[in-house]
Amino acid sequence: MAGPLKGFRIIDLTNVVSGPLGTMMLADQGAEVIKIEHPAGGDFTRAMANRRGGFSASFLNNNRSKKSVALNLKDPRGVAAVLKLAATADAFVQNFRPGVVDRMGLGEAAVRAANPSIVYCSISGFGDKGPYADKPVYDPLVQALSGLTSIQGGSDDARPRLVRTIIPDKLTGYTSAQAITAGLLKRERTGEGQHVKVSMLDSVIDFLWHSDMGSQTFVGGEFAQEKAASFIDLIYETTDGHITVAVNTDKQWKSLTAALERPEWLEDPRFLTPALRHENIDDRLTLTQEVLATDSSAHWLERLETHDVPCAPVLTRSAMIDHPQIRATGIVVELDHPQAGKVRQARPAATFSVSEPDLSHGAPVLGADTDALLASAGFTADEIAALRADGVAGTKEEDAA
Q1: Which of 169, 283, 295, 336 is catalytic?
Q2: H-helix or E-strand containing 243?
């Protein structure tokens, strides 16, 4: 079955995670995504550890459903080939540092000259303005600059802590995919292309504001974030592991006291209203932990579920895969890759009732589609052979095969 974006062609000049994840989302939804890679090695993540069959897990998990064209962009003929491909495309995505892609000859002006109605997306670390615009970027830098590490630390005075997953990179991928799709929708309705700009820093700050920036929301009424129980404190230890329990409403609070057999908490002046329970959250969580530490996870989960208290087990990666809820939704799938063998991945989170994506095409071999796609852009067989002979197109491994 064809995905909802079938018929759109996207040129993908991105590396690592922020760009490749976003374009993989578009590819999974049916777009033809053409990944442009250097003939000598390709995307940086191809060489990362945890490998099988010549593929790293990182590359597999961010480049599914794509095609690969190997072109040397240091050669003007390689740049010309990309522009020729761009002339056939609907969108062009790149995540070079601001200014770099212009010097390569593949900035917005050059690409738009080849295709005036194209949606051109620039992904950057810090944006194209300000003192950080030209700085190299890594996920921890964005976590620090955005305030995320302070939020993760628990207060303005606590030791900042990194989130132990690359949220800025992945969030930027999601933001880019949505923005590109919106640009394509506008183009379908009006015929007009545009330049879409997404930075990792902006993506994270936007993300944080919806739940973590209340202290800075009212102009003139800002206040420092004092130490308070954070989400990590909602993880409770039992005699054989950990569970999480989340209680907000009066009804849920009453149910919790029943499940834990602590009716006296209902009369405690510290916990009479949601506002008081929030104000005295540390006391509330301490008391809850003392009770939950007396028995097993299974015991408490059964009691909590019986009383309709929101709760869940705290799972490791491997335990998550085998949990009945995960199996029921089918979010984790096993797919056959021609080189890497059977791989386990997450399907796209969104499902479609009449245009469900086809995930049978795994991440591509470097340069696997070079000849076919150059031909589709108008190159003759002799021209492609000449580009290969001069090291502009294809890979040495392909030519030796």
Answers
A1: 169
A2: strand 242-245
Residues in the chain: 401
Pairing of strands 119-124, 341-346: unpaired
- DSSP assigned state of 6: T
SS3 state at 279: helix
Measure CA 397 to chain center: 31
3-class state of residue 199 by DSSP: strand
User: Is the pLDDT higher at 337 or at 398?
Assistant: 337
* Lookup: tokens for 12: 């993908």
Q: Which tens digit of pLDDT belongs to each residue from 168-183? A: 999 999 999 999 999 9
- Note whether 198 and 176 are within 8 A (CB): yes
SS3 assignment for 291-347: HHCCCCHHHHHHHHHHCCCCEEECCCHHHHHHCHHHHHHCCEEEEEECCCEEEEEEC
Work out the average pLDDT over 13-37.
98
106 SS3 class: coil
Of the given ranges (17-21, 66-70, 393-397), which has the lowest mean pLDDT? 393-397
Question: What is the residue whose two structure tokens read 């470097």?
Answer: 366
Helix (H, G, I), strand (E, B) or coil at 268: coil
pTM, entire model = 0.93
> pLDDT, tens digit, for every residue of 224-281?
887 655 455 689 999 999 999 999 899 999 999 999 999 999 999 999 999 999 889 8
Q: Is 283 a catalytic residue?
A: no
